[in-house]
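Severity: low
Component: inverse-folding endpoint
Summary: output formatting inconsistent between runs
Steps to reproduce: submit the following structure tokens with default settings.
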């Protein structure tokens, strides 16, 4: 006895119908025949091949490619509505799961991502790695003096999280599409602002790339089967980016302003806290009711360092009031009020006016 869940193919029901969509008198029900993937397409849709049909019982068949067809094929057996809906829900879930399943195969040119910290700057390269597979590479598969995506599939992407120099030219922080023109003795490296993954977007653009030169060398008997991009010769202020395939290696210098960045940080730290640091610390202590005397010292230090703003004075007046110095609070609030009026800041005008009235009572 056949299992109740098996694959079926629904023949066209329309050819069994009468005109204007009415059922023909001799075929009120759609016939069902076993499904085979080798059967021809549906007659009314020559280019369409349904994935499969599943028959749950003698009275229920589902065509995943087109529609759910519920029709009584037997006058002897009838399904209850609740049982029918349960079967339908379960079957739809099964078919959706089957439809989403995909076969994964290895990519001929696998995607790769290389990240390197150079000094204080992170440099990231994202590219695909084609292999030789017995082919002649440069001058044949990759023609000389013609733009190349520097890998396979999508355009190679290089990202700098800080300003750098590439091949002696300034390059701002950001992502770039890196195209190259391999030559016999050197390569031209072209950096375009990265706007698309496809290489065609850069072949046809009017945007002028940052163009630099990469030196090349022949590695003799040593060959790299797969194309590779790597970083080497790392120092605190730079590195070399190497592009290697077959027995050719191209090197591109990357330099950084690490010394200037570190010196700026040293000067900032050694100079002590900024006016904003003092103001933030004072506000925290005041809001948390922690050592209000220390908070007032930091607030005054912030103002002395040039942070005399209507919002800073407003914060100081609140701190004075909290410490019981209402006279000082009123004086500071009046100064904040005048500055808020000059700035036409209605919120601070209102807050200072209300506070002055309250503290004057």
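Observed output (run 2 of 3):
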């Amino acid at each position: 006895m056949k299992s109740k869940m098996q694959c079926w193919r629904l023949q066209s029901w329309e050819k069994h119908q009468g005109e204007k969509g009415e059922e023909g008198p001799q075929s009120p029900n759609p016939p069902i025949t076993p499904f085979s993937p080798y059967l021809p397409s549906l007659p009314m849709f020559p280019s369409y091949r349904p994935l499969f049909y599943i028959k749950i019982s003698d009275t229920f068949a589902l065509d995943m490619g087109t529609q759910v067809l519920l029709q009584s094929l037997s006058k002897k057996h009838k399904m209850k509505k609740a049982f029918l809906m349960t079967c339908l829900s379960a079957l739809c879930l099964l078919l959706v799961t089957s439809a989403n399943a995909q076969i994964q195969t290895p990519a001929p040119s696998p995607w790769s991502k290389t990240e390197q910290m150079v000094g204080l700057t992170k440099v990231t390269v994202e590219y695909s790695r084609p292999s030789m597979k017995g082919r002649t590479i440069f001058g044949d598969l990759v023609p000389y003096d013609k733009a190349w995506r520097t890998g396979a599939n999508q355009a190679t992407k290089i990202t700098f999280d800080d300003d750098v120099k590439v091949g002696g030219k300034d390059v701002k922080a950001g992502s770039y599409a890196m195209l190259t023109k391999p030559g016999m003795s050197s390569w031209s490296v072209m950096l375009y602002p990265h706007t698309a993954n496809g290489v065609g977007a850069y072949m046809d653009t009017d945007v002028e790339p940052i163009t630099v030169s990469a030196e090349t060398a022949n590695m003799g008997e040593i060959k790299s089967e797969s194309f590779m991009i790597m970083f080497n010769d790392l120092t605190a202020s730079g590195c070399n980016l190497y592009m290697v395939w077959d027995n050719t290696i191209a090197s591109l210098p990357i330099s950084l302003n690490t010394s200037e960045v570190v010196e700026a940080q040293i000067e900032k730290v050694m100079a002590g806290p900024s006016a904003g640091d003092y103001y933030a610390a004072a506000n925290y202590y005041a809001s948390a009711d922690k050592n209000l005397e220390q908070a007032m010292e930091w607030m005054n230090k912030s103002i002395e360092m040039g942070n005399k703003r209507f919002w800073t004075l407003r914060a100081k007046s609140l701190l004075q009031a909290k410490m019981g110095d209402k006279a000082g609070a009123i004086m500071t609030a009046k100064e904040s009020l005048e500055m808020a009026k000059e700035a036409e800041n209605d919120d601070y005008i209102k807050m200072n006016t209300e506070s002055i009235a309250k503290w004057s009572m």
